[in-house]
Amino acid sequence: MDNRERANMLDCSAGGHGVAQNQGADPTVDRAHSDKEGILGWCRRKAVDYFVSPLLKSSHPPWYDARGVSVGLAVGFAVPVGAQVAVLGVLRTVLRFNFVSAVAFSFVSNPFNMIPLYYGYYLLGSWVIGKHPHMDFCLFQKLMSPIVESGYFWEALGSFLELSREILTAWFVAAAILATVSSVLGYVITHRIQMARAKRRIGKLEERYERILQEFDEKN
Predict the structure, then answer these.
(1) 71-76-79-85 Cα dihedral, nearest 10 degrees
(2) Proportion of the chain above pLDDT 90, given as a percent
(3) pLDDT tens digits, residue range 91-111?
(4) Looking at residue 215, what is its pLDDT?
(5) Residue 26: CA atoms inside 13 Å, Cβ hemisphere, count?
(6) CA distance 72 to 85
(7) How many CA atoms lie within 13 A of 67 on its CB side?
């Protein structure tokens, strides 16, 4: 454990007990519940817009869409937050895939979920390599704060690489596992869904073609 981790552990232990004690009745419970439903509705709409709509509106072959989801998930889990789109842009020059879907699914890791997600990386990676994790979430959050508060990607990357070897090793191990598993599952599931949609479209076109032929024969 380096000096920064020790200092943050002391701060965390000193401030980690400040739990609010006020548990009285809140007169704005109904209003808070309504706001929560509004937030959930907004999140649901955004999820449909960014993840579902590009696939539903796609006229590409199933493998093209499936590869986009697969690449997006792999980059999202394996590349540090902030660099996903740039990496996808480079990959797009050598691979063919649905770029819109890839960008959408790459945001499975984002600034809003980065700290809890990366703490999960730390726990998973530590378990895989056989090392007991010595940091709790509070300490990990303090270590990640310079990265989250960085104004530029290269500044955030520099802060990320300054983390201890233990954290980085666990991170890369977990990232490789999650990227591989999610990429394979993303491809298989998306390909099946898009194949089913393609078959339905073909069936509708065949029905329409037969109906046109029947109308033509009746007129003649």
Answers:
(1) 80
(2) 42
(3) 999 999 999 999 999 999 998
(4) 72
(5) 8
(6) 9
(7) 14
Q: How far apart are CA 146 and CA 107, in angstroms?
A: 21
DSSP code of residue 50:
I
Tell me the two tokens of residue 168. Answer: 């980085």
Cβ atoms of 98 and 64 closer than 8 Å: yes
Give CA–CA dist 138/141, Å, rounded: 5
Here the tokens at position 109 are: 């890791």
Report residue 23 as tokens.
């548990």
> What's the length of the chain?
220
Tell me the C-alpha distance between 113 and 165, whole Å: 23
The domain locations on the chain are 60-219
Question: Over 90: is that where the pLDDT of 134 sits?
Answer: no
Cβ atoms 161, 168 nearer than 8 A: yes
Do 87 and 73 form a contact (C-beta atoms < 8 A)? no
End-to-end CA gap in the chain: 87
Arithmetic mean of pLDDT over the chain: 81
Enter the tokens of residue 140: 């990990």
